[in-house]
């Protein structure tokens, strides 16, 4: 994934041309630190936030999937479906984070997995099958196993960083972030303070703070990627072999005709509907858009603070036996 800069309205750009870069960098870091303190004050203050030892949360969500339904060699329809799911979170601060995802597929059975970060270690449970570097799933080597484990760990750290920052303005201790002030970012009809956050493995996003309250309002991620349209064969009843062969041939032709080259995308994760929970203002709604179109919305049903958590949830699963 190639990360690119989001379009920003820089309030410091004119002055930056006449100031030394080192001085500008230090000022940007200092401004980011100042805004982060203000953001933490806005969502509860240091006394309340530092008193949080655990957070547990539960929520339901829908993924909105657009796809092309191929129903016959001559009938093709564009459709959208809401796929239900749920998320469960367990945070044992300062360095243990867990998210369990249960979700539906467009076709096939539901699936469930957990992402866990424990200090500097992270993993997915259960792991996926090793991803082949040869472009052929039948060819797997030791490097593929290690590479897949690294991808799982990185994905867990990055995904849980989004929620830890959006909820508490707290980076994961085992996955530190460098912060610097960017300027102003136009979100809808309103400006927001923009802070660049970057970490290992090319991880980068833009943290957006409300101009009036300073509470974290969104995270913006920009990237260039090939995202191909979903094409699904949907038929009902019994049809001849020739009919099915021609229908699948039409589906292949649609995939080829609609294939897109890599292009820029902007992913925006918005945190809203903040409510007080033991003195902390936590967001009960998380909405994700891709190039302005809603692709996922999660509604939290509950947050609990300082409820005991079984530490076994953060234990690494045993290595598979040969």
- The Cα radius of gyration reads 22 Å
- Number of helical runs? 5
Query: Based on DSSP secondary structure assignment, what is the total number of beta strands?
Result: 14
| Number of domains as seen in the coordinates | 1
Work out the strand percent: 35-45%
- Element string (H = helix, E = strand): EHHHEEEEEHEEEEEHEEE
User: SS-based structural class?
Assistant: alpha+beta
Distance between the termini: 33 Å
Which segments are poorly predicted (pLDDT under 50) over 5 or more consecutive residues? 1-21
Main beta-sheet strand count, sense and barrel state: 14 strands, mixed
Helix percent reads: 10-25%
What value does the average pLDDT take? 88
Shape summary: globular
Write a short abstract of this structure:
The model is unreliable at 1-21 (pLDDT under 50). The protein has one domain. It has helices at 13-16, 21-42, 46-50, 142-168, 241-257; strands spanning 2-3, 54-70, 76-92, 96-103, 111-118, 121-125, 178-187, 190-198, 204-210, 216-225, 230-233, 263-277, 280-290, 293-305.
């Amino acid at each position: 994934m190639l990360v690119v800069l989001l379009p920003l309205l820089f309030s410091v750009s004119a002055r930056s041309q006449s100031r030394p870069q080192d001085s500008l960098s230090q000022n940007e870091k200092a401004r980011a630190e100042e805004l982060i303190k203000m953001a933490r004050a806005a969502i509860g203050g240091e006394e309340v936030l530092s008193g949080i030892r655990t957070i547990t949360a539960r929520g339901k969500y829908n993924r909105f999937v657009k796809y092309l339904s191929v129903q016959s060699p001559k009938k093709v329809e564009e459709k959208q479906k809401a796929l239900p799911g749920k998320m469960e979170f367990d945070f044992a601060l300062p360095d243990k984070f867990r998210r369990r995802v249960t979700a539906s597929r467009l076709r096939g059975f539901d699936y469930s997995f957990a992402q866990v970060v424990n200090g500097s270690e992270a993993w997915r449970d259960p792991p996926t099958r090793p991803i082949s570097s040869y472009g052929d799933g039948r060819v797997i080597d030791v490097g593929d196993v290690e590479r897949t484990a690294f991808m799982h760990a990185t994905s867990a750290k990055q995904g849980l960083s989004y929620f830890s920052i959006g909820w508490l303005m707290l980076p994961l201790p085992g996955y530190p972030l460098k912060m610097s002030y960017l300027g102003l970012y136009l979100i809808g009809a309103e400006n927001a303070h923009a802070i660049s956050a970057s970490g290992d493995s090319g991880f980068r996003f833009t943290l957006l703070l409300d101009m009036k309250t300073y509470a974290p309002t969104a995270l913006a991620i920009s990237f260039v990627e090939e995202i191909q349209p979903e094409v699904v064969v949907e038929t009902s009843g019994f049809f001849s072999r020739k009919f099915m062969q021609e229908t699948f041939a039409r589906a292949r032709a649609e995939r080829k005709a609609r294939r897109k080259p890599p292009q820029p995308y902007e992913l925006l994760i918005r945190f809203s509907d903040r409510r007080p929970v033991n003195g902390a203002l936590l967001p009960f709604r998380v909405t994700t858009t891709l190039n302005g179109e809603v692709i996922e919305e999660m509604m939290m049903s509950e947050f609990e603070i300082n409820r005991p958590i079984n530490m076994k949830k953060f234990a690494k699963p045993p290595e598979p036996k040969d």
